[in-house]
Amino acid sequence: MTTGFSSGSSRFADYFVICGLDTESGLEPDELSALCQYIEDTKFRDGARGKLAMSNEGENFEQSPLRRTFKSKVLAHYPDNVEWNPFDQDAVGMLCMPKGLSFRTQVDSREPQFHSFIITREDGSRTYGFALTFFEEVTSKQICSAMQTLYHMHNAEQYDILHTPTSPRGPEDQRLPQPRPVLHAAPAISRLQRFNSYDISRDTLYVSKCICLITPMAFAQACRKVLEQLHQAVTSPQPPPLPLESYIYNLLYEVPLPPSGRSLKFSGVYGPIVCQRPSTSELPLFDFAISEMFNLLGVENVLQLFTCALLELQILLYSQHYQRLMSVAESITALMFPFQWQHVYVPILPASLLHFLDAPVPYLMGLHSNGQDDRTKLDLPQEANLCFVDIDNHFIELPEELPQFPNKLEFIQEISEVLMSFGVSPEGNIHSSENQARYPFRSVDTVSDNRNGNLSSPLTSYLLRENETIARLQALVKRTGVSLEKLEVREDASCNKDPRAQCDEEELKMHQLNIQVREVFANRFTQMFADYEVFVIQPSHDKESWFTNRDQMQNFDKASFLSDQPEPYLPFLSRFLETQMFASFIDGKILCHDDEEKEHTLSVFDSRVDKVRMLNVRTPTLRTSMYQKCTNIEEAEKAIEMRVAKIDHTALHPHLLDMKIGQGRYEQGFFPRLQSDVLSTGPTSNKWAKRSAPAQWRRRDRQKQHAEHLYLDNDQREKYIQEARNLGTTIRQPKLSNLSPSVIAQTNWKFVEGLLKECRNKTKRMLVEKMGREAVELGHGEVSITGVEENTLIASLCDLLERIWSHGLQVKQGKSALWSHLLHYQDSKEKNATPGGLGPPGFIHDTERRKSDGGGSAMPPLRISLIQDMRHIQNIGEIKTDVGKARAWVRLSMEKKLLSRHLKQLLSDHELTKKLYKRYAFLRCDDEKEQFLYHLLSFNAVDYFCFTNVFTTIMIPYHVVIVSSKKLSGSMFTANPWVCVSGELSETGVLQVPRNTLEITFECQNLGKLTTVQMGHDNSGLYAKWLVECVVVRNEITGHTYKFPCGRWLGKGVDDGSLERILVGELMTPTTENDERMCRTPPMQQSPGMMRRFVTISPSSKPKLNTGQIQEGVGEAINGIVKHFHKPEKERGSLTLLLCGEYGLVWALEQVFQHGFKSPRLFKNVFIWDFLEKAQVYFESAEQREATPDENWQTRVRHFCRFMRAINNTSRNIGKDGKFQMLVCLGARDHLLHHWIALLADCPITSQMYEDSALIKDRSLVNSLIRVLQTLQEFNITLEASLVKGVGI
């Protein structure tokens, strides 16, 4: 079927462009490229050369004229302009010939080079370019003689350099042997001879020229063939069948884009060209050879690069081949399906845009290398978050703390199997010279060929078997239980090739490999996000207000999603959910309510997710980390093969145009200036369009077509998403034209504004997450942030700080700009510190110490010192890198609520800041800097444990002070006290405390948040009675101070006779005001001792609470425990506080047993434990008398008596209240409390020891109490070791 086109926007190509040497303007040095080259070279030059170069700034006389860069121009482009894609002359010229013009002579290699590029407009839409660069003989006499003149000048300069002594020689120098100048000069002489090769009389001069297609879609293989055939037409001895204009006219105006799911054949100069486009149910169009990336980098490196891209780190690709830069960038972004890179994307960065490497935003850029410099000579602004990929050397440098991609090993294995079936080595093919020698057919030029990776000869399979790395991989695969015997290398593809296939076998194989690898990658996301829709939070407002408040809205329930994921996935997923690409993906989902509106990428992904869910219908929400392989490879491959086997459409053939006689002739070897009159406009009426253009050829507008294959939405949705998403990105894309100083300054200003905006959003997000307010507003109850997610947010704050600190740096020093600044500050303060001054440098006077409530008198507060905090970090041996130290310092400062204050102090040294930063740097914009510090100050409103919880293995000094009552006993006390401190991570063991000072400082491995202190004494000496007010423990690094209230005696024959107590602590809040406790949610708990002072019953005391209040107290205590277990495990607080703390379960049950307790003799204290012991005696005697109602009752009695005996027999001297606490904790753990309450309510001892009004005697109240306690049965309560130490049950 032959068909035309229906509207301009559906053309295969928008422009045909010719770039090269403009003979009229002559040779112009490419100043920007030359300047960059000059800066590079002057860094590594010595002696007289450096001086000479300095005197000729801007011109690089070191370079031979043939190696210098000259300006190229866009010589012609056809048509002049198309309305849907305005021609950007600057960008096209820069990217067609990024290095400018190159000159060669007949002795140099002049092979044509193909490369592709992409122009991303500021709105994010993309246009693709495909360029073929070749060499033509220079016919202009002026240009040849200009080159000859440049050579004479160059040779004279070189001669001067060679014969200039490097320094004036003294008489001593002259006596020394002098081999060095000769050695020094030798390479220069040979270089002079080598480059002094252009002689106008004997040499032919050639200059580079470029022909290029600008297309709306990336049909790379088809465009390459078109350009190669056009070039062949002008270089072959025979002229082409028709004038070149006919073919180019046909391409621009008569070849349409193939419709979705169809293939199209059109005519090149010498043969048919086939391109095919995926259907709307397949993965989007991708026409670059993915095998090239795997050949260049190897599977392991590709996966690391892929992880960096998904986490939106800064990525810099580095290669001397433009096509490699483009191929790797496009391949990596294609593999991200269904997500899309949202930030700066410049796969080929022209020399004039190098300042964009300073951008403090995520980017994916490609930098051209000249093949001589190594990695160390690249001066990159910041490297803390940089992934550097040296493509030519098979090398990747990763940022620190990069999480592992989920199921990494199985994933690598699955990709490797696909690659090996096509004869591609999973470890890459050019990582050593030995390998290059082993593959003789892989010259540097052939590697840049897109199709080089698809090795398909029998030689390949032999090489694979011989290759040690493959052997190792096979061994690994066998160990994992997969047989490779069934894996056939596709070397006989030519034998069973479909005779109907219309495109060549190499290309078909490329498409097959591409789709297989892409399906494997897409399957990972389909499995990982199979149930993502459940967690999308649909806005309750209308669209307009949703857009207005977008930055305050949460669009995805991250905490719930993460709590469903397997543990190994969390480090990666928690960071990935914070990225712009994920947020944009979810925004797209929210905006598309029905399938009609769905963007192509989203609808393809959703249909795959639906399939996975149907397969997993038996276990709909079960998340396992079991690896599930891709199952729809064959189906995807079949679709491509069918399109290629049966061509759906054939475009019009090229035909003679209405040209004047004599037009269309050309000279062999020269690409001509074409006839613009015939190429500038298309046909006015199109008879073919009327004949049979099918519906799918017609595209309403360019946006619709882009939405389908370039991932863009229609105008309004694009605008909305752009506005909504611009929150985090300061700059979406650099404009390639108009690089005046004012534009660069404006760009920098945009960066500063964007960084501030990002800081505001990040601090707000972190605070809201921490306080749980946002989750409550969205109807999720009291969901607080997970530990993993909190770590992610703090890590992203550290990234932001690094980007702020590396913006506008004068000279990069070390990988962390923040730590480098801190070290400079530390040095300057330590140099300026005067002996006998005000203490160590960087300390603030005592007036600025933190006062702490209550314990302030017991323990002098820690001084606030930025430098002391740095020293703490420097002393931690586990942290080896600058980036790690900077992050640890930020975490410590946040935990101490000093981040804003420390950074303010750091930046108050204006001289240092001026020395380190350029004028436009963020840190030198005063208003923005003040606002930034103000935003960070808001972190002081919440408590972070981001240092304590992360550095769990480091040694930390703790300081303990025991505060005894001033009124009684302190000075006369003779026994030897001890303490044992317990935290969430571990406990210290028994530590002896000197009784004269009652203070001790010790160092031990991080205990985590402190929970309990066990304290006691050995009852020695004449006066072993001790009234303790409280124990105060401080972490000497973080400054966290915990107060463990007691208010009880320790000693035989006093209080409840206890020699040791378990105290439950609370974190004291630093305050500069009075002793008041801050109101907190949830309340930090106090020790049992605080309320338990009222447990002792004396004749004058009345019960404090009525039955209603007691019931409420029990209900609250149980409710606290139930809520605790309903939270995800990582979000739970301390269960010990809920059991033994203020108003905890122990306290609530004490109130129950206290109510209506009969008054004993005057001044004789009776404890609940006394009552329980009497009940135990009764039960044991009842057992002996066998007066048992039933077997259940007997079992309960046996349990009760066994626990009572075990607690009474413990070697610990914990006193009667301590024993009661232990019984309640054990009863709660073993789900026996409700049975025991029922036993005690029926026990005759109760009627003897309680008044008739007692709660324990009221049958209905006891039943409701039993029902409440029964709710604890469904929970698995684990007790802290300190609570049940010494009891072997």
Can you walk me through this structure?
The N terminus is likely disordered. The strands form 5 sheets. Strands 2, 3, 4, 5, 6 and 7 form a 6-stranded antiparallel β-sheet that branches. Strands 11-12-10-13-14 form a 5-stranded mixed β-sheet, with helices on one face. The protein has a 5-stranded antiparallel β-sheet with strand order 19-16-21-22-24. Helix content is 41%, strand content 11%. Helix 38 (1107-1126) packs parallel to helix 46 (1259-1270) and helix 44 runs antiparallel to helix 46. The chain has 1289 residues and is α+β, with helices and mostly antiparallel strands.
Rg over alpha carbons: 39 Å
Helical percent range?
Answer: 40-55%
Q: How many extended strands?
A: 24
Stretches with pLDDT under 50, minimum 5 residues: 1-8, 42-61, 166-196, 431-466, 482-500, 618-623, 686-714, 719-731, 773-786, 836-856, 1072-1103
Give the overall form.
elongated
- What is the structural class? alpha+beta
**Number of alpha- plus pi-helical segments:** 46
